[in-house]
Design goal:
The structure is a homodimer. The first copy, chain A, is α/β, with parallel strands linked by helices. Helix content of chain A is 43%, strand content 16%. In chain A, α1 packs across α11. Chains A, B: It comes from Eubacterium uniforme.
């Protein structure tokens, strides 16, 4: 058996949001180990420059490689949009982001060729969803909408709250007049607002959760490269899944325990700036 | 004339919030030059650990000293609360924060010895306002309330908005039952919500803006140390005031121009992590 098959998958995000992607990987690939890194010292990425996002992503890739991962999932839309292309050429293990799988599924889903994207400022401004969608079908119209308060609202646990409803109504008002039939939840926090967004957009709009599509894509990729673990792990969750952060303060544990189907025992702080690139 | 008198004052914050303090210094000390540093790459500080806040503050102090400042104002409540005491012992120029001046004025203001503090999670948890207030008068009751959504709401420009009103009502509901007569706006963004907070708290509660008090304290300090510039500067605002950030992305310029009484010409990006401490 290929030893590398037993290696974990690395997953990283600017903070807690990527846990929605890790959760999908746990569901769809229950026998894969995961090393998760949340860049809680430098969260949020959404308002930062491409130059810094690229530097941060390189540092995290270096850290994950030091943990012996066999593949990396960039579970952050901003980093997928701004850093993935460069990093892909710099490393010798497979790496995928969340943007392409989300874009591909949206293209398959739309009937009227009108797709909406909601995301952070940086992701919307990067227009990368639009770019990927147009690579697949240049006839599709893509309408982007930044929802900057969604991340703080989710991180405050205000998933079902009239304030969140009000902000969602404002952010989505423009999209509702655009006759889209498909809407990409283009930030890893947004699947946690799926019910609110779905209610406002109505039944005729299909919501695309890139976390789900990314886990599917990871499975294909591991199979293609003969890297998928084909044994059975005799480990509990806290052995199978390791969690690292760049700042131990804040609410990582609370938030993680509210998202994941088990309680995390250990969260290890890493001096990420020491991973010089 | 003492050459050092002509040196600028360094002012730093995790981002744009400290501009409310810089603005007060510009008003009260119109002939002092200012070098402002906003740590936009690592904002917000409010959810980060003491260890990281201390490291970041040391790096910024090193940067400001490289610009030849004669004194430093820590225009960030979190850094004032978590890093100022250590840093004060490490440097050879005067340094003040925003917490002590705010606490001192609140103690002078209260008649019924009941003071409220609203701030970020980290500032409230540090209990430093409580500590400073109790050093001055241990009979005073201090009631703290974290308002985590205020910073993103202010940064989205939602200063006069029903969503901000609703969040303010929720955050302040507990304080309203505490019979406080004085409320410290313990985060540099909060003076921009002064009218909302004032309306909810009512006329009988005096709002304390530490930015104002800090500029007063800076003036005293410069006089005491014979560092106050006593000439007249023949410079326009964009010569007198220099602005540096750790990340040029985001909304620093828009926000700064909405707060300051002039438009900033140049904002320079600094690789702050290269200031190794």
């Amino acid at each position: 058996m290929n030893d590398l098959k037993q290696a974990p998958v690395g997953v990283f995000d600017s903070g807690v949001g990527g846990l929605t992607v890790a959760r999908e990987i746990m569901r769809q690939l229950p026998d894969e180990r995961i090393v998760y890194f949340g860049d809680t010292a430098r969260v949020p990425y959404g308002s930062k420059s491409k130059e810094n996002i690229l530097k941060y992503s390189r540092q995290i890739v270096k850290f994950l490689k030091s943990k012996g991962v066999k593949a990396i999932v960039v579970a952050c839309n901003t980093a997928s949009a701004l850093a993935l292309d460069e990093i892909k050429d710099e490393i010798d293990i497979p790496i995928i982001g969340v943007v392409k799988p989300g874009a591909r599924t949206a293209v398959r889903s739309t009937k009227n060729k009108r797709i909406g994207v909601i995301a952070t400022d940086a992701t919307i401004k990067s227009e990368l969803y639009t770019e990927f969608i147009h690579e697949l079908d240049s006839d599709i119209t893509v309408v982007g909408q930044a929802c900057p308060l969604f991340v703080p609202l989710v991180e405050e646990g205000m998933l079902h709250d009239e304030v969140t409803d009000e902000m969602a109504k404002r952010y989505l008002a423009g999209l509702k007049t655009e006759n889209i039939d498909t809407l990409i939840l283009g930030c890893t926090h947004y699947p946690l607002l799926r019910s609110t967004v779905g209610r406002i957009m109505g039944d005729k709009v299909t919501l695309i959760n890139p976390a789900y599509e990314t886990a599917m894509r990871l499975k294909e990729l591991l199979e293609d490269k003969d890297l998928k673990f084909d044994g059975k792990l005799n480990m509990d969750e806290n052995e199978k899944y390791e969690f690292f952060v760049s700042d131990a303060g804040g609410k990582f544990r609370t938030f993680a325990n509210s998202i994941l189907p088990f309680d995390i025992d250990t969260i290890t702080q890493v001096e990420i700036e020491e991973y010089i690139v």
